[in-house]
Amino acid sequence: MSSLLSYALPALGGYAMLSIFFLRRPRLLHTPWAPVFLPRLGAHRAGSGELLENTMEAMENSLAQRSDFLELDCQLTRDGVVVVSHDKTRSRQSGVNRDVGSLDFEELPLYKEELEVYFSPGRFARGSDRHMVSLEDVFQRFPRMPMSVEVKEENEELINKIAGLVRHFDRNEITIWATEKSSVMKKCRAANPEMPFSFTIGRAIWLLLLYYLGLLPFVSIPERFFFCFLPTIINRTYFPFSCSGLNQLAAVISKWLIMRKSLIHHLEQRGVQVVFWCLNEESDFEVAYGLGASGVMTDYPTALRRYLDNHGGAAQAS
């Protein structure tokens, strides 16, 4: 046993030193992704804290605040139109208990006059524009605006139509595939492999495992974006579980696992842009940029723009 330890301990020590060395200097092993744009200010649901979510009015407002990209979710109507909608059903948004997929585009009901901001409970957004919009109209109106497009389910028709629209409007480099599910991401990448894509939940867990095992510096990373919730918002503005105790536990564990400057620096050095969501308070902006994140997604682009302007673009996103 002592003989085994005499070999194992120096080997483990050498491995640890090598891992730390390349964790801090990943460009010695990997050519970094070249960023097409800097995602310092992302408008979540097009800026859903200031105007009704995912409307043209909200998007115009986000552009007026010099947002760097829009974060959108897509659904498919019965007549095959890709629409920008976070929810599958229209109950929360319109008070009509119908799925988007059970209605033709022209039948879609208007948004309610006001909607509660999901990540700022008790606060509401209002707006004069209450119409749902098609992704095609959005691409026509904002042809060079970078966007993250999230797909929530394995709907191949929806995925293929999004991929086709991106190609048609020559947006391959500035439209990001996003989804929580690895099975969905596989279909998205097959439909348009030229689009950059973000980490799924499964891949994010794998990333953390590699990081803590010391293997991350030696593994290739095909993703170009890491969209991640900021752990400090759990139990304040983000409640992933119905049980308060579980939320407190999740906050502690995720804070310990994710909020590592060395991890974020490593990803940034490899050209993987880290964006924390969904932050609506200046104190959270401070934490995110202090960790070295590329950017922040917010429901309040005006507030984040003010913060960035007052802090030198958060040192140009570190």
Automatic annotation (TrEMBL):
GO terms for biological process: N-acylethanolamine metabolic process; phosphatidylcholine catabolic process. Keywords: Cytoplasm, Endoplasmic reticulum, Hydrolase, Lipid metabolism, Membrane, Metal-binding, Transmembrane, Transmembrane helix. The keyword Cytoplasm applies. The keyword Cytoplasm applies. CDD domains: GDPD_GDE4. SUPFAM superfamilies: PLC-like phosphodiesterases (SSF51695). Its main location: cytoplasm. PROSITE patterns: GP_PDE. It is found in: Cytoplasm, Perinuclear region; Endoplasmic reticulum; Membrane. It catalyses: N-hexadecanoyl-1-(9Z-octadecenoyl)-sn-glycero-3-phosphoethanolamine + H2O = N-hexadecanoylethanolamine + 1-(9Z-octadecenoyl)-sn-glycero-3-phosphate + H(+); N,1-di-(9Z-octadecenoyl)-sn-glycero-3-phosphoethanolamine + H2O = N-(9Z-octadecenoyl) ethanolamine + 1-(9Z-octadecenoyl)-sn-glycero-3-phosphate + H(+); 1-O-(1Z-octadecenyl)-sn-glycero-3-phospho-N-hexadecanoyl-ethanolamine + H2O = 1-O-(1Z-octadecenyl)-sn-glycero-3-phosphate + N-hexadecanoylethanolamine + H(+); N-(5Z,8Z,11Z,14Z-eicosatetraenoyl)-1-(9Z-octadecenoyl)-sn-glycero-3-phosphoethanolamine + H2O = N-(5Z,8Z,11Z,14Z-eicosatetraenoyl)-ethanolamine + 1-(9Z-octadecenoyl)-sn-glycero-3-phosphate + H(+). Pfam families: GDPD (PF03009). The chain crosses the membrane at residues 6-23, 195-218. It is a multi-pass membrane protein. One of its GO terms (cellular component) is perinuclear region of cytoplasm. Residues 39-308 form the GP-PDE domain. Gene3D superfamilies: Phosphatidylinositol (PI) phosphodiesterase. One of its GO terms (molecular function) is metal ion binding. PANTHER family: LYSOPHOSPHOLIPASE D GDPD3, PHOSPHATIDYLGLYCEROL PHOSPHOLIPASE C. Hydrolyzes lysoglycerophospholipids to produce lysophosphatidic acid (LPA) and the corresponding amines. Shows a preference for 1-O-alkyl-sn-glycero-3-phosphocholine (lyso-PAF), lysophosphatidylcholine (lyso-PC) and N-acylethanolamine lysophospholipids. Does not display glycerophosphodiester phosphodiesterase activity, since it cannot hydrolyze either glycerophosphoinositol or glycerophosphocholine. This is Lysophospholipase D GDPD3. The gene is GDPD3.
